[in-house]
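User: Predict structure, ligand pterin-6-yl-methyl-monophosphate.
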Amino acid sequence: MTARATGGRPQIWGIVNVTPDSFSDGGRFFDAERAVAHGRVLRAQGADVLDVGGESTRPGSQPVGAQEETRRVLPVIEALAADGATVSVDTYRAETARAAIGAGAAIVNDVSGGLADPAILDVVAETGALVALGHWRGPSADMYARAEYDAIGPEVANELRERVDAAVAAGIARERIILDPGVGFAKAGEQNWALLRQLDAITALGLPVLIGTSRKRFLDSALGDDASIERKDLATAVTSVLAAQRGAAAVRVHDVVATRDALAVARAWEG
Ligand code: PMM
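Assistant: Predicted complex:
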């Protein structure tokens, strides 16, 4: 597995969240079992990478801590990697990343681009994992306070270039870096659309670009406030195709089937 797109179509990263199920009393084992089963379904549906996360990074969400995060994701990563899946760990913590790689994760997906816990870059360098560096300006709790841009595309590109420099300085080979402009991270509503419109500024950095729009709040401005999950998944399939047409190498989604089909239809059109 490289950081490049597979066979001309973008990679599909399927989202596997390992968070407690408030509707079940099955306990912790059940949460992991459920996540593994979900990951297997996504893989069978065509996910190229399974992105396993144990802490929500949604706006306003509370951190769970490294110990709890590791406890949640490790058994899931172990089981999915043992199946032969390419597993990514969605974490900004060095300690979690190290444990996840030990359990079989091949990719560290750090939405903070190494800013939240700089030691994560050393872990990636030491282990030879791939890394996705996200554009980030601070923790979820107050990230909208930092959502100020004059020209969002070039500014995000510049800040990502600094993260690449930090990663390379830590000993990570450029070929092992994927960039993510961080849709929804320190960007409010319309700023996300402007960023997507200016995706060229990010792809011009010359590294593979990962885009995550799945079920995000900014889609509401196109769909209306009360759009169902199904409608958001359809919208995500459309944004994933548009991102792919503008050079994205990978898309991170909840609904793998919708995005897989949309990408296949776009490819058939393009011939
Ligand atoms: N978004 C979320 C979590 N992890 N990782 C990457 N690389 N890019 C993203 O856009 C991204 C991410 C938040 O969304 P979720 O809570 O639906 O997973």
